[in-house]
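Need residues for this backbone.
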């Protein structure tokens, strides 16, 4: 299993910023897709942003223009810069990795434990 550790969540006021980080552990040769999902209480988990090994990005419409996803392949880390935060961004944010090539084989889908982001009005 690929171990994913998220950090950077917290409590901020509306209009503020947070930067989330997710580091994948172990000796990993490559990761096809890294992304961030979020889940608010009583709602389904939704895709926030994703980035491929080629640098292609996609975003949920609700965060376009405010969030930026990036990755550092040397560190096997993905980041989510969140600006102009809104109360509706409040959720647990989960790191996701698809198709990681590791020393022990290919892992198709890995999840972090999540980090809480709370935006107050």
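Answer:
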């Amino acid at each position: 299993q690929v171990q994913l550790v998220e950090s950077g969540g917290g409590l901020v006021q509306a209009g503020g910023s947070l930067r989330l980080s997710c580091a994948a552990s172990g000796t990993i040769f490559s990761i096809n897709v890294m992304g961030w999902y979020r889940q608010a209480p009583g709602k389904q988990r939704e895709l926030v942003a994703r980035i491929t090994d080629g640098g292609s990005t996609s975003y949920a419409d609700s965060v376009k223009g405010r969030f930026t996803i990036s990755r550092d392949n040397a560190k096997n880390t993905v980041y989510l810069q969140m600006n102009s935060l809104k109360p509706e961004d409040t959720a647990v944010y989960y790191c996701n990795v698809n198709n990681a090539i590791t020393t022990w084989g290919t892992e198709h889908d890995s999840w972090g434990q999540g980090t809480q982001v709370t935006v107050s009005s």
